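Intended use. Records like the one below are meant for learning the mapping from a protein sequence to its folded structure. Do not use them to infer anything beyond what is encoded.
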Amino acid sequence: MPTIIRNALTAARVAAAKPGPELYRLHDGAGLYLTIEPSGARRWEQRIDVAGKRTWRGLGSYPERGLADARDESFAMRRANKIEMAKERERKGLFEYCQRHNLNRGDLFKIIPMLPKVRIPRKKAKAAAAE
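Structure written out for the chain above:
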């Protein structure tokens, strides 16, 4: 089901955005912003979390990239970021798995290339021990 964005930007609102005395941002939803500088320059930016820290990624300037293109790029960037975060969680799980089973660092580096094939068992031991 597609995400419903409330108070999303419209093409008319983007075109009518005027520069102010300070930099400001118009929010479109799901981390997509139109940044308007005092000089009149307008650019699209995506706010995403990378390694637990919020960062801003540029998507291009407004006249060259329209609202629909910016939304498509934003969606693609969020999807890629989710995939990277999942891989990072899998790597951390793999490292913890190796520590639990007394595998050395060399074994870890042999296993990492097989990440898509390796499935790390979830921590069900705590649930079993509680019963």
